[in-house]
Amino acid sequence: MRFDIITVLPGLLESPFAHSILQRAQQKGLAEIHVHNLRDYAANKHKSVDDYPYGGGSGMVMQIAPFAACIEQLQSERTYDEVIYMSPDGQTLNQSTANALALKGNLLILCGHYKGIDQRIREIFVTKEISIGDYVVSGGELPAAILVDAVIRLIPGVLSDETSALSDSFQGELLDAPVYTRPANWRGHQVPDVLLSGNEAAIAHWRYEQALARTQERRPDLLDE
Ligand code: SAH
């Protein structure tokens, strides 16, 4: 998969993709992430990409021309399955959206700042708007990093234990079961005996029951679905 991300703060996106699973996915050639500095597409000599809102009010608005120049350049090089704008009023990101996007080839992601981006960018270029939840952060970069992480870990071969993404919360209707590791006894707090029993069927049954109880307690809405 290939991800192109357009931002005014490319530095904000360096670290999230330079470690652990996301770094390995790129090293293995399973994912490519290209970050584009929107200011490189600004025509004015100050490289500014925002301006005052029409109609007045607080906050700056990101202009259409630099976004258009960058998007059109990228679209002349390849076809994108989706052009995604990270936005608090978009569709809330969930596992099924991540699963669907993991089947795509090329994704182009736009990060907003300040008051957001000129509405015409959304109408003309954007095919999908995604929110990371009902709260507002300062820019689209951290939301974009979350989206890209959620998608990349689903690409076959990215996680070393191939089944592990499938047993995560939200892949099925159940939340994940509790997990433990050594020591078996820490200050008298014991790991459940069944996990030490070596009885695979009993362990699977225990995990299922725990996952079910946890889901009933924390997210009964998942069972209703
Ligand atoms: N005025 C906008 C918020 C702008 S916040 C509004 O009220 O809807 C600045 C940028 O941060 C947005 O353009 C968007 O790219 C990003 N952003 C903020 N919160 C987000 C969220 N919950 N999900 C995805 N992107 C978000």
TrEMBL record:
Q: Where is the tRNA methyltransferase TRMD/TRM10-type domain?
A: 1-224
Q: What is its EC number?
A: 2.1.1.228
One Pfam family here: tRNA_m1G_MT
What is the protein's species of origin? Answer: Olivibacter ginsenosidimutans
EC top class, as a word: transferase
Question: Where does it reside?
Answer: Cytoplasm
Protein name stated in the entry: tRNA (guanine-N(1)-)-methyltransferase
Q: Which reaction does it catalyse?
A: guanosine(37) in tRNA + S-adenosyl-L-methionine = N(1)-methylguanosine(37) in tRNA + S-adenosyl-L-homocysteine + H(+)
The entry sums up its family as follows: Belongs to the RNA methyltransferase TrmD family.
Q: Which domain of life is it from?
A: Bacteria
**Which keywords does the record carry?**
Cytoplasm, Methyltransferase, S-adenosyl-L-methionine, Transferase, tRNA processing
Q: How does it assemble?
A: Homodimer.
Organism lineage: Bacteria, Pseudomonadati, Bacteroidota, Sphingobacteriia, Sphingobacteriales
Q: What's this chain's function?
A: Specifically methylates guanosine-37 in various tRNAs.
Binding, S-adenosyl-L-methionine:
112, 132-137
> What Gene3D superfamilies would the database entry show?
3.40.1280.10, tRNA(m1g37)methyltransferase, domain 2 (1.10.1270.20)
